[in-house]
């Protein structure tokens, strides 16, 4: 008989504009290994590994955030891991019919992401419309988030990061995309409540291959707390949307100092302490995740290349790019 592990502890948290609940937390000194063949259930995400799965120093958050970029639509249920995992075995994600978000249940597929921004649907997955779950048999699948989605859109572009800051007079938005040619454009939209959106500018994308870095400043924010998203247009596909960034005007500044030394980097915070940091490479993979709050973080063993440091302040994630030479 297979063993069943069930975690039911729920902690309330807030991220972006949607409430989250923490369904799993494993401290850094605790080892949690899910043995092959064991059915592991965290909320409505069920993993049955075909090889031993180590979840030490990891977390799982459940939220009602629908995926809005690619695939074109997602259900109102998403699971985010604090650190990326590589999984072999069966993945099942259960949902309520009320969470379909306009999708036809019979067309649902399992979808996952390595950076919780760019998503990939798995056409080999199946859906059970009687018990309401999607299922995917994975082989060395690397991911940091999971959901179920409607029919996918095959875009030659992936949004690696969309962040912003409001430490100066005007809000500034930054995003990084990986693209393989094609004509693209970005329509920047703002909102004071995260529901009603207005276009505030358009930026044409570069018609090239590789990474593209973009920036946009909002010279006329209409409130001290603003929400932003990007409508991405890439013919012949239908327009799609980025994640939502919430920015709040700071009454006092906060200094973030990052310096490198060989194959390591040190990050220091002067003023408010972050809720945690993530280290992401140019492929969107989460290499490190430290969700403790402290004034200094040391990152060792980095290969030469471009990295993105994400840090959380007051529920808002901001990214800073740096290079290891």
Characterise the protein shown here.
With 325 residues, the protein is an all-beta fold. The chain folds into three domains: 146 residues, Chondroitinase Ac, Chain A, domain 3; 92 residues, Immunoglobulin-like (Sandwich); 70 residues, Immunoglobulin-like (Sandwich), CATH 2.60.40.3080. Helices cover 0% and strands 58% of the residues. The chain contains no helices and 28 strands. The strands form six sheets. Strands 1, 2, 3, 5, 6, 8, 9, 10, 11, 12 and 13 form an eleven-stranded mixed beta sheet that branches. Strands 16, 17, 19, 20 and 21 form a five-stranded antiparallel beta sheet that branches. β24 and β25 form a beta hairpin. The protein is globular and about 55 Å long. It starts with a strand and ends with a strand. The N terminus is likely disordered.
In short:
The protein has 325 residues and is mainly β. It is 0% helix and 58% strand.
* CATH architectural grouping of the largest domain: Sandwich
- Give the strand content: over 45%
Average pLDDT over all residues:
81
The CATH class assignment of the largest domain is Mainly Beta
Q: Segments where pLDDT lies below 50 for 5+ residues?
A: 1-18
* Morphology call: globular
Per the CATH scheme, the topology name of the largest domain is Chondroitinase Ac, Chain A, domain 3
If helices are DSSP runs of H or I spanning 4 or more residues, what is the number of helices?
A: 0
Q: How many β-strand stretches? A: 28
Quickly count the domains.
Answer: 3
> Could you describe the largest sheet, including whether it forms a barrel?
11 strands, mixed
User: How far apart are the first and last residues' alpha carbons, in Å?
Assistant: 53 Å
Helical proportion, percent range = under 10%
Give the structural class: mainly beta
SSE ordering: EEEEEEEEEEEEEEEEEEEEEEEEEEEE
Radius of gyration: 20 Å
